[in-house]
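Per-record layout

source: Methylobacterium nodulans
name: Peptidase S8 and S53 subtilisin kexin sedolisin
length: 464
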Amino acid sequence: MARTPRKGPSSRIPRDQNTEEQPSPAIVEMQGISPPGTTGRFLVLLKEGTAASVLTNVAGLSVASTADIKEGASIDDLGGANALMFPELGIAVVDAPPDQVQAIGVAAADSGVLAIEPERIVYAIEDGPMQPGLPGLSPPSSAGFPLDYLKGYRDAVNHLYDALTGAVPGELGAEAVPSFIETELTWGLQATKVPASRFTGRGIRVAVLDTGLDAGHPDFAGRRITTQSFIQGEQVQDGHGHGTHCIGTACGARRPGQLPRYGIAYEAEIFAGKVLSNQGSGADGGILSGIQWAVANGCAIISMSLGGRVGPGQSYSRVFEHAARRALARGTLIIAAAGNESQRPGFIAPVGHPANCPSIMAVGALNRQFQVAPFSCGGLNPEGGQVDIAGPGVDIRSSWPRPVLYNSISGTSMATPHVAGIAALWAECDPQFRGRALMSILTQSARRLPLLTRDIGAGLVQAP
C-alpha cells in the first residue's frame, strides 16, 4: 500500500482558529497605491456586525448593497455609488479617491474595519500563457540538458525522497497505476472511483464561478441551471470555453452525446456564475459577488478555477480568508485551483490567490501516471499557501461551447472541478458533510500516494 510522506509543521493556521477580530497588519500600508495586477479599487473587510454605514460616516462614501439589487451586482454599474457591500460576507468593494480610502484606514481601530487590500485582477487558470505580461506556463524545455542527465536527476531525486520518507521504491509501479482506456469514461473519473459511486449529486447545489456556461450545449438539456453574470456588458453565455469545461467535469451528463462520460455529479443543481470575461479575466470584486450569490442561494460547494500569481513569502488575502470562513459557517465550501505557474522540475511556484487562503481548499494537479503535473503549484509559503488535495488535471476531456462541443485541456483548473463534483457526492451521502466537515471528509478519504504533501496535500480525491 502506498505510504504518505511524513508531514512537518503545518504552514497554515489551524482551520478552527478564530481570527475574525484580528486586524491585518497590512491594513493601511497599501492606501493610495495601485500595485501591478490590481484595479485601483480596494476591498474593505468589516468586523462581523459592523454596519456598512461606517463607510459613509468615516469616509463619506455612497454605499450600495447587493441585498437591494435583484440581478448580478457589479461596482461598474451602480450609478453614483462608489462602494458595493456584500452583506453575507461583510466585505465592500470601494472605488474612491485615495484620501477617502486613507480615512477608512486611519479610523480602522475604532470603526470596525479589519483590513483593506487592493483589488486584484484574476484569470482563468489553465496550462499555458494565460496571463498577459507573464512568462509562459507550459512545461519547461529540456533544451541544453541531455536526456540521460535528466533521467539521472529524476532517479537521484526519487532515491533521496524514498530514503527520507520511508517510501518503498517502485511501490507506485505499473501494477498500482491502471492503464486508463477512455472508451466509456475519462481517465479522471476512473482514477477517482466515480463510476463505482451510487451517489449522483441529487439535491446538492454546486456553484462554478468562471467564464460562464454554454447553456445551449445539448449535454445540459433538461438540467436545473441557475445563471448570473457579474461581468458588466456580458451575458452568462460562455465566449471563452473554460467555464463550460469546468462545469462539465463537476456536473456534466451521465450519458453525454459523445462518449466518454466526463461529468461527475450529473444530478446536482448547477449555479453558473460568470465572474470572468470572455477574455478569461476578472477582478476580486466579481469573485466576491459570485461567492455572495452562491452562499445566499444555499450552494454547498463553490468551485473556482481562477486566480492570480503569488510571490515567494507573500501572505494570503485576509479579506478572502474571512469571506471563506463566513461561507464555511453558512455550510458552503470553497474549492479553488492551486495555480499553474510552476515549471517542474526546475521551478515550483507557490499556491496562488485566492487558493492560498487557509479556509479555501487548494487543489493541485496529477497526470494519469499519478505524478505531479509540471505546471502545478506547491505549498511553499510559510503563512498559508498549502495544497490540500489533488485531482486529475492533465489532458482532461469535458464539454466545450458549441459548435466544438468537447475539448481536452490541462491545468489545476481541470483538477478543481473533479474535487468539486466529488464533494457534491459526499454532500449527498451525508447531510452533515457541509462546510468544514465536507473539507475534512474529502481529505480523510483521499488516496495516499508516495508524493510530497507539499504538492498533493492529502492525496488524490476519491468518490464515496
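summary: DSSP finds eleven helices and 16 strands in the chain. The chain has two domains: 38-120, 187-456.
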